[in-house]
UniProtKB/TrEMBL annotation:
Annotated residues for binding of [4Fe-4S] cluster 1: C52, C57, C63, S289
Protein name stated in the entry: Lipoyl synthase
EC category: transferase
Organism expressing this protein natively: Hymenobacter koreensis
Keywords in alphabetical order: 4Fe-4S, Cytoplasm, Iron, Iron-sulfur, Metal-binding, S-adenosyl-L-methionine, Transferase
Binding site for [4Fe-4S] cluster 2: C78, C82, C85
Cofactor(s) required, per the database record: [4Fe-4S] cluster
Domain Radical SAM core: 64-278
Localisation per UniProt entry: Cytoplasm
Gene name for this UniProt entry: lipA
Length: 300
């Protein structure tokens, strides 16, 4: 009898899940025009950092074209390594006590009606950079008394004395971004804590400030987790919430799990207001400082 040769059965490999394709509603215009060029010139001349550039913001063309920008103080190297953020991570070596003056002068030259100021995390500093924060707001108010200011402040790691200094300069809005829902913190914000950020917002509200926060969608959160996050924020005194689509800045960063349809953004806006938030800015291209000038009028 002839010997029968048995060949191994080769199972076809499962195809890797396809990455979600960026939908049409996320297309943005390239930054152009004389107003944009003027802001570009002022930022370069005064050696300023903007989160518009460092964070690869999709609205940079629109905002800079309108003569506005979000300034980033305390350098452009962050001590945190959040998986979503395009800002460089490392050991910062920039600590410029003259920076508040330069930012204030640039805001005056630009004729900004509403300025947004943010910063990298400076965990290595004893006061988390609070003194520079305070002076930037104070000096901006001195040079441009009619300019309203929002400060988007980092996690102070429970240094509540630093928080008190950061929010005491006279700004109209104090923002601190949650960024995502509680279950994703270890993945998205490994050096932050969900409850600690909530406490920072609560303490800011107890100090009598107008409070604001932002969450990125499309990282893998569920609807129930979003509802819980909005409930938690409302319970801790949040006034204003921004909701926008997460966009992967580079291949090294966490991938987009899902592109959220504009209809769901509209639903979350309705839910946020129903759950006690006073103002919700919700849409695929919404970022923390998008339409920020509208937020100063939210009653506290």
């Amino acid at each position: 009898m002839d010997e029968i040769l048995m060949l191994p059965v080769i199972q076809p490999q499962a195809a890797a899940p396809a990455k979600p394709r960026k939908p049409d509603w996320l297309r943005v215009k390239l930054p152009v025009g004389p107003a944009y060029a003027n802001v570009r010139k002022l930022v370069d001349e005064h050696k300023l950092h903007t989160i518009c550039e460092s964070g690869n913001c999709p609205n940079m063309g629109e905002c800079w074209g309108a003569g506005t920008a979000t300034f980033m103080i305390l350098g452009n190297v962050c001590t945190r390594s959040c998986s979503f953020c395009a800002v460089a991570t490392g050991r910062p070596n920039e600590y410029d006590l003259d920076e508040p003056r330069r930012v204030a002068e640039a805001i005056k030259l630009m004729g900004v009606k509403h300025a947004v100021i943010t910063s990298v995390n400076r965990d290595e500093l004893k006061d988390r950079g609070a003194s520079v924060w305070y002076e930037t707001v104070v000096q901006t108010k001195q040079l441009s008394p009619t300019t309203t200011i929002e400060t988007l402040i980092p996690d102070v790691k429970a240094n509540w004395a630093a928080l008190d200094t950061m929010i005491a300069g006279g700004q109209e809005v104090v923002s601190h971004n949650m960024e995502t829902v509680g279950s994703l913190y270890r993945l998205v914000r490994p050096q932050a804590k969900y409850d600690r950020s909530l406490e920072q917002i609560r303490r800011t509200k107890e100090a009598g400030r107008r409070t604001k926060s932002g969450i990125m969608l499309g990282l893998g959160e569920t609807k129930d987790e979003m509802y819980q996050a909005m409930d938690d924020l409302a319970a801790n005194g949040l006034d204003i919430l921004t909701l926008g689509q997460y966009l992967q800045p580079t291949k090294r960063h966490i991938e987009v799990a899902e592109f959220i349809h504009p209809d769901l953004f509209a639903h979350y806006k309705e839910e946020g207001l129903r759950r006690g938030l006073k103002y919700v800015e919700s849409g695929p291209l919404v970022r923390s400082s998008y339409h920020a000038e509208r937020h100063v009028n939210v009653p506290i």
